[in-house]
């Protein structure tokens, strides 16, 4: 169901409205699997495929597709809270249903819903993607939370980091800390998602950016949070959980030294 659903979505989109969210090697494997599925072949996935689907300017659906039901979230940093909740509710309703093509239905209904949204006086323009081999703008943020204990939040953060290609370190318990590092646009995406979660209290404590001369893949490998995975053949970002405050501080300082 998942591959057939995604194949239909991909066939209905222009090239600029669909992006694989993985390494170049992963994108090649995923595209072949999608082509084989579209040709009617029986394809089994060892791991979910991650992609981004453009609904409108600045509004994307980030999806993970495997052999079962897909997972999808809306990314729309420039929308107000009510509009974002409305679009997210559309996604939730389809994911909770037993539809045969939930992702395709999500895309179609979101396109219709976005067309009905009030147009702001000044619509933010999407940033121009940097050149393939030009400097990459990287970013790091740290959030403080009153507490971080809910398994649902931990599962979401664990899924978002590889989906968005962001390195994460989170300190569980009271208080909670959430640190993310990666390309600026991806860090902004996960920061927006974190803000839209329900928190007793949440505040942004640090935010910094820097430039890296190289490809996005090289920039991710050079991230301080990625030191333990720097030599891995296939780059896959993840979220690291720490429960002890002393260990968290020591690990955070060690990574940045």
UniProtKB/TrEMBL annotation:
> Domain Small nuclear ribonucleoprotein Prp3 C-terminal spans what residues?
142-205
Q: Which InterPro entries is this protein grouped with?
A: Phi-like, Prp3_C, RWDD2A-B_C
Q: What's this protein's name?
A: Small nuclear ribonucleoprotein Prp3 C-terminal domain-containing protein
What organism does this protein naturally occur in?
Answer: Malassezia cuniculi
């Amino acid at each position: 169901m998942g591959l057939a659903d995604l194949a239909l979505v991909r066939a209905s989109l222009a090239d600029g409205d669909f992006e694989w969210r993985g390494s170049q090697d992963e994108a090649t494997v995923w595209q072949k699997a999608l082509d084989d599925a579209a040709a009617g072949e029986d394809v089994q996935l060892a791991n979910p495929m991650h992609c981004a689907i453009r609904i409108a300017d600045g509004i994307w659906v980030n999806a993970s597709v495997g052999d079962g039901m897909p997972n999808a979230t809306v990314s729309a940093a420039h929308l107000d809270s009510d509009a974002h909740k409305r679009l997210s509710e559309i996604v939730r309703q389809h994911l909770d249903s037993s539809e045969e093509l939930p992702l395709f239905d999500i895309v179609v209904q979101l396109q219709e819903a976005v067309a009905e949204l009030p147009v702001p006086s000044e619509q933010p323009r999407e940033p121009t993607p940097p050149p393939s081999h030009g400097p990459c703008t990287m970013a790091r943020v740290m959030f403080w939370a009153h507490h971080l204990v809910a398994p649902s939040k931990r599962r979401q953060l664990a899924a978002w980091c590889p989906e968005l290609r962001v390195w994460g370190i989170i300190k569980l318990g009271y208080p909670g800390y959430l640190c993310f590092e990666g390309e600026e646009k991806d860090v902004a995406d996960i920061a927006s998602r974190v803000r839209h979660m329900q928190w007793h209290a949440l505040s942004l404590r640090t935010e910094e950016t820097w430039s890296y001369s190289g490809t996005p893949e090289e920039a991710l490998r050079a991230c301080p949070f990625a030191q333990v995975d720097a030599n891995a053949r296939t780059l896959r970002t993840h979220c690291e959980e720490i429960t002890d405050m002393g260990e968290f501080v020591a690990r955070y300082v060690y990574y940045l030294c």
